[in-house]
Design goal:
five-stranded mixed beta sheet, 32% helix, binds zinc ion, three-stranded antiparallel beta sheet
Length: 355
């Protein structure tokens, strides 16, 4: 569920200080997750029954099927050995740092023992960012493809170079200027068989699709779009810069590449690229959000609505690196040092849900 019109200081923390005061213990975090997942009270995940009893270990017992369920069952927090307070801090950093955080920064800031644990936490957070049934792009939408990857500065000696991936990009163009939302997905190739499904998945029929003259987009009008074709050859003949034809997708592409090289130091393996693109899109589409704390709330809302992503599933192929990439972003001291030890002024269970 999505909370309508959340209020800072009431539904989500407005500052790191407030965050620390709200989520000092795992019980505080459970309260908050319960409030997000079951705003009108417990719902049995097995049978859907709405009456249950809270047991001593904070799980619920269903009044109909007698099943036991915790609020984290079926979410990314299920069966994790990491304390919820650490999960929440990772989520807070993930949401409040404008450009996100690397696994190395999270490991250092939260004093997590292994790089792999920090990496897997961030990867689980990324795995929930695409809301099932999210709306497609509308209006005027620029579509193009670009190659991403191929350079992995983090890899040392004798290891294989990363492969380039072809990525489809679609971005809403606003009048008179400015960008709306974007979408990015890895494509098998630049053929019609790859490009048409990409457009159909991410752009609402009725939209005007701006592309270059590439034949892979031919026939897109039969899927319900108006296609406006910008030909590089025609631009050259007119004396215009052919690279300025689709300025908006190119801007998004360069922002995404810069972000991968900056926050993640280019250490993204092709097998995991899509989830990093999902994170980039999530951030890009919330770039004007009035509060980073609100982004934290939105990530947790998505997290309690998802099936768990198990570490095993993440590392099917290939394995995450044992060690952090070379180089390293200076990231200051852990926020835990700044956390006030004030008494809790707030309980999630006290809150009403808006909307
Ligand atoms: Zn039940």
């Amino acid at each position: 569920m999505t909370l309508v019109k959340p209020v800072g200081g009431r539904h989500y923390p407005r500052s790191t200080g407030e965050f620390g005061a709200w989520f000092a213990t795992d019980a505080d975090c459970l309260d908050y997750l319960e409030w997000l997942r079951w705003p009108e009270g417990f719902v049995c995940p097995r049978c859907g029954h709405r009456v249950g009893w809270r047991m001593a270990d904070r799980r619920f017992r269903c009044g109909a099927c007698d099943g036991r369920a915790s609020v984290t069952a079926g979410t990314i927090f299920d069966k994790t050995r990491t304390p919820l307070t650490v999960w929440f801090m990772a989520c807070w950093l993930f949401a409040t740092q404008k450009d996100g955080v690397s696994a190395q920064s999270v490991q250092r800031a939260l004093e997590i023992g292994s790089y792999q644990t920090a990496w897997a936490m961030l990867h689980r957070l990324r795995s929930v960012l695409v809301r099932p049934g999210r709306e497609r792009l509308t209006g005027t939408v620029e579509v193009d493809e670009t190659f991403i990857g191929g350079e992995e500065p983090g890899l040392r000696g004798g290891r294989a170079k990363g492969k380039k991936s072809l990525v489809g990009i679609a971005v809403e163009v606003k009048e008179p200027r400015g960008l709306g939302r974007c979408r990015m997905a890895i494509l098998a190739d630049g053929s019609t068989a790859s490009l048409h499904p990409f457009v159909a998945a991410h752009v609402e029929p009725g939209a005007t699709v701006l592309t270059d003259a590439w034949q892979g987009y031919s026939g897109i009008d039969k899927l319900g779009y108006s296609r406006l074709r910008h030909s590089q050859r025609a631009a050259r003949l007119r004396g215009d810069d052919p690279f300025a034809l689709l300025p908006n997708v190119h801007r998004v592409a360069s922002l995404a590449k810069r972000w991968l090289l900056g926050t993640h130091q280019g250490s993204v393996q092709p097998a995991h690229l899509q989830s990093y693109l999902d994170e980039f899109v999530f951030r890009f589409n919330r770039r004007t959000s009035r509060s980073r704390g609100l982004v934290f709330l939105r990530v947790l809302e998505l997290a309690v609505a998802h099936d768990p992503v198990r570490y095993r599933d993440l590392i099917l192929n290939p394995e995450p690196k044992k060690n952090p990439p070379a180089g390293g972003a200076g990231w200051g001291h852990p926020p835990s040092l700044e956390r006030p030890r004030a008494p809790r002024p707030w309980r999630a269970a006290d809150l009403d849900h808006a909307g």
